[in-house]
Amino acid sequence: MALFKRNIWLIYYILLGCTVLLLGGASVTQWQDMEDTYRLRQTNLIDQWYGNLNSLMLQQETIMDVLGQRVAAMDDPLKMTRQLDRLESMNPELFSGFGLTWPTGEIAAISSGLKEALVLNLTQLNAARDSFLYSMTQDKMVLGRPYAPTSAGVVLPFRKAIRDNDGKLIAIMSGSFWLDTFRKTFTCDPGLPECADIKIIRSRDRYPLVDSSKSSSSDYYNYAMNESEYQRLLAALNWDAEQGYKPYAGKPYSYLRRDRNDNSLMGIAIYDERYEYWLVLEVEESRFLAEVRRNVLIYMSAFIVFNICLFLLFRMIHSTEEKRRQELLYQANHDTLTGLPNRNNLQQIYDRWREPPNHSLALQFIDMNNFKGVNDSFGHECGDRVLKEIARRIRKSLNEDDLVFRLGGDDFVVISPFVNEKTTLENGRHLIAEVTDTYSVDGRHFMLGASMGIARFPEDGRNLDQLLRSADISMYEAKRQRMPVCFFEDRMQDTYLRNIAIEHLLRTAVINNEIYMMYQPQVDSTGKFIGVECLVRWENETMGGRVPPDQFIPVAEQAGLMPELGTFILQRSLQEMAAIQNETALEFSVSVNISVRQFLHEGFLSSLLQEINRSGMKHVLIVLEITESIFIEDMQQIVELITAIHEKGIRISMDDFGTGYSSLSLLHKLPVDELKIDRSFVEQILDDINAQQMVQSIIAIGRNRSITLLAEGVESEEQAQMLRDYGCDSFQGYYFARPLLIDELRDYLQDKVLS
User: pTM surpassing 0.90?
Assistant: First the structure.
């Protein structure tokens, strides 16, 4: 089928060639058939005419032989005339008259039809002298030259020598045919191509006796046929002078010759050896060719009509297949959901858009943050509508020279001319702002985050794979730094390769017992121990020992490993803290960090309750720490889930509060129990007025909403005292205690709490 589609026009050309060959073959065959038929009809006609003419001549010769002896024996001229009149009356329309002439040329008697004729000596009559003298030497009837003996018309004479029993010449019997009437014996349908020019030519002197194309009154009959033309006729018949005329006697021969005017003639000739004449039927070949052309034209018309229909059929098939091919090509090169060009299309046009060679371009890789949550929460139909809206917004924000592609999922690529970093950065930020604006689907309103990585051609890669990898690396760097847009830098390559190694090793880290927990104590404003924050750690020899959480947690998030890792963290933390509390008979809060992926994972609430119940800890002692990044997902779903968790008695802590951009305006919707002041503010609180104002604002918000406030990253008494002065409730940091292993925590509690 594929071969048929690719070679549809080849099949048409083959069929066209076959029909051309068929037309050529049919035309040649038709030509040959028509020529054979034409020759056969000519032959049949000339055979018929020759038979009739020969019979007429023999019959007339016999009558003249018998009657001539009888008339010559009469002494009375009147009786002679009466006898000749009787012979003339047998067919007055054909015979113009009869006469008896003595060997001297004197006329002995003539029939009444010749009474107007001058009674002359035939030896003195130019038109008659030759045949008269020749007839005296022959025993057969001799045809004479046409002439006009009377005013009634032109006649074709014939003469027969009359001899006695001893063979002595006693008289010449003469007769004549009316020429016009005689020519009518050669009857055929004038419309037939083979019925054309009929001639009778006397062979001994080339005089024409009958010519259907000439008028009987023409002086054409007064002159012998041109010698060269006569020789052309004989040459066309392949006449051999040595053999004479005998081989042609009574047999029709077809030929093709040219006359003196260079006209091509098709002819049939029969030679009558007894009466020494050629019976010739000729027609101009152009007449035959016209007939052939008419028939070929019919074939040609049928051929043209057939091929027009065939062409239209194949064009329709081609158009249908081309339309289908274009549809398949479009489907192969475009995303079916958004209609944007896809990765295959990007690969195909790579060579085109990168020219001219020195033309600098920017490849911008866009990834929507946590888009999977939309599909998981609202279904793929809603997710598809959001993707369409994302594609629409991207197209709307692009310049005329920019190209946009959907690589799959929630990944998009924009290619644009690179002018300078400032312009490209501004355009990228504008684009990210557009695609992260509020979405409204089926009455739901939510915001999506997005990150963009930019790679430049040719600085960051000379082929497409290199550019995509560079843009992808810079996009993940943007995610890591919580930036909307990030340009690729060479140093990111090392980070990218390290992240790949982290992802690979992290997949077996739990199985290999490389993941473990540490716990950092939390105290109130008086320094009293009130709880711990559970901190995950990873130790791997290949990676050079301990891998910081801020390096492997984002990798786990992106690789989809966080639900599994988060389950391990929750289980291990609750298990170890439950054991500590049972051992010490102390009740203290246990704060566990929950990642975005883990929080939005299907069945998270039921899994959380199951693990808490399994540990035996009280719900009120459990604190789930969530970051502001969670609010880039669907706010309604987040509020519903947090509310459901809070209703189970589990407390909610907002980690890194104040570093985001959405929670301040939405905090009133959330059942938050604790706000954690980010360490970035605490580090600068002694010297930076802005940091001081931010901390005071966060504490004021917490006080107004009766939310507990905890400052993290406290490393000095001065920081702690300023925070106490501002009204902060509790603290966490190296000033009070560093993160501790489980056994170290036991010792800490023994020394600080139980002593």
Answer: no
